[in-house]
Amino acid sequence: MVSSRAEKDLTGAQSVDRALRLLALVSRQAERGMPLSTIVDRSGLNKPTVRRLLLALIRAGLIEQNIVNRRYYIGEEAYVLGSLASRRYGLLQMSMSSLIRLSRKTEDSSFVSVRRDTYSVCLHREEGTFPIRTHALQAGFEHPLGVGAGSLAMLASLPDDEIAFILDINRPLLMERFPKLHPDRIWADVHATRETGVAFNPGLVYANSWGMGMAVLFPDGKLAGALSIAAIDSRMQAERQGELTELLRAEARTVEAELARTFKLKQEAERPSLRSALERALH
């Protein structure tokens, strides 16, 4: 028989886990915020529970509510924690020198992106000097995984069963918003990416915006993100693709070497400061 103390500990741990799930959910809409109804719908929790957990997150400074539109946003304390973590774990920070070199050498725009569930998110866009640019991708933009060169590079690095799950989840959105990127076409592009080692997007999202991308991996082989280059179609024809591939490969390996120096292949302990803050707020 479980003691009342154990039951209380179990309930507390469950509340913390649920609160962390809500925090992750809201963080995916960092700029736009998220209304309560959407949080309830996507979390699968009932409204009173969501309200209670959101209030706890607000007390911990991890989430805040806009008094005008009533949407929930990432809070100041989350920003502080993220800033502290970025010094050690930040892919963006580790990629900046590579992005600058890519844009200087190619004169085109370069990007670093990461995976967020079934989507890719652009963390940064580094402008090139070529006067005609494509503006299809900007920092903060989200695309279903497989849509765009960096996004496709990340998808191709995943196991087949995970790719199948992602494409099944994203199928309605792909069919509605990206008619040239049917899941069958993305599967074909995944195989091509694995064969060549570089993802290629010949204007499938925007007709005059072409891109090339390459996945960046952690030391244990898991996906960290992707580097990519975008340019107008005339600057990504066959005669230039080999050069761009080699530049991408060199910088992706440079970032991976930096990750290897930073990370140790072991399980990270849970961040006690975050859990402690939530536990205090929930009780």
Summarize the structure.
By secondary structure, this protein is of the alpha+beta class. The protein is built from 10 helices and 8 strands.
Question: Would you give an account of this structure?
Answer:
This is Transcriptional regulator. InterPro entries: GAF-like_dom_sf, HTH_MetabolicPath_Reg, Tscrpt_reg_IclR_C, Tscrpt_reg_IclR_N, WH-like_DNA-bd_sf, WH_DNA-bd_sf. Pfam families: HTH_IclR (PF09339), IclR_C (PF01614). GO terms for molecular function: DNA binding; DNA-binding transcription factor activity. This protein has 283 residues and is α+β, with helices and mostly antiparallel strands. The chain folds into two domains: 4-81, Arc Repressor Mutant, subunit A (Orthogonal Bundle), CATH 1.10.10.10; 90-262, GAF domain (Beta-Lactamase), CATH 3.30.450. The chain is 53% helix and 18% strand. The chain contains ten helices and eight strands. Strands 5-4-3-8-7-6 form a six-stranded antiparallel β-sheet. A two-stranded antiparallel sheet has the order 1-2.
CATH class of the largest domain: Alpha Beta
Strand count: 8
Strand order of the largest sheet: 5-4-3-8-7-6
What kind of sheet is the major sheet? 6 strands, antiparallel
Number of helices: 10
What is the CATH topology of the largest domain?
Answer: Beta-Lactamase
Task: Give me the CATH superfamily of the largest domain.
Answer: GAF domain
Please state the average pLDDT score.
84
Protein name: Transcriptional regulator
Pfam family, one: IclR_C
InterPro entries: GAF-like_dom_sf, HTH_MetabolicPath_Reg, Tscrpt_reg_IclR_C, Tscrpt_reg_IclR_N, WH-like_DNA-bd_sf, WH_DNA-bd_sf
GO biological process, one term: negative regulation of DNA-templated transcription
